[in-house]
Amino acid sequence: MRKQLEDIQKAALETIQSANISSDLEALRVRYLGKKGDLTAVLKQMGKLSEEERPIIGQLANAVREVLTEAIARQSERLEQAALEARLASEVIDVTIPGTPIQVGHRHPMSIVLEEAEDIFIGMGFQIAEGPEVELADYNFTKLNTPEGHPARDWQDTFYLSEDGSIVLRTQTSPVQIRVMENQPLPIRIISPGRVYRKDEVDATHSPMFHQIEGLVVDEGITMADLKGTLEILVQRLYGSGTKIRFRPHHFPFTEPSCEVDVQCFECQGSGCRVCKGEGWIELLGAGMVHPKVLEGCGIDTNVYSGFAFGIGVERMTMRRFSISDLRLIYENDIRFLSQF
Ligand code: PHE
User: By the 8 A CB rule, do 233 and 251 touch?
Assistant: First the structure.
């Protein structure tokens, strides 16, 4: 029996050590140590042994059981370790492989110019004000010294939102002037960018929806010279120090005197072309000294205070800034166009 036990141990150790799947190992455990296993089978014959032999063989059998149990545990550990290593090796991440490129969006050229302009004005001490696009006709026209029946209401005639004509999509950012003067303490120094709407036909320089930046300064002793200096600083900073602008007398109901300011055409440098319609200059903004009637309508004492205002066309400012010759490009959202800026 001793020989039998020793043979079992020898054979079992060999097969256990060469098992390389954990299910095989389990089968071996059953085969050698299980109730119907080889070791049990030997032990069942213990009855045949003499009194002296029995404890010796018993001890030997227990020792074999221990050795095999130990061997199975060790092999099982080895298999687990090997499996783990195999998994780690197969799941290795190569951080040097280039990733899938993500398409990053792009700021619209008009947003770029708007932010540049905002920075320039903030640098001069202006604050940014906001007003509604759906506006009372009262604010869009009447309080801006443009009463009902005034011819300026005609050419700006617009998208009315109520039958009685009391609510409109604003035709200009100028109503923000009124809202600010009615609500903010003096002195005032604001700009107000936003959308405006007019029944304009689409062409290279017109669109029924476009953007303006309104500007308003009200303080003691403000003159046309302050207006000129402010606008000159704006265009020099935006377009470079050599940029030429010109002031032309004009008429707006809510400024007196009024002017329009043109910037030299970027396309032809002043000689006249399609972009400037042969003029050599491109109209950039309307401006003037705030009409005393408008100031007084907002409860401002015109004996003490005066002010200037301007309204810049943001599309035109952008076209000049980036030499864009057709306004329609700005709205088409063609990636090939947008990604150039
Ligand atoms: N609101 C005028 C326009 O849209 C521009 C302007 C603004 C003129 C402020 C004078 C003062 O044409």
Answer: no
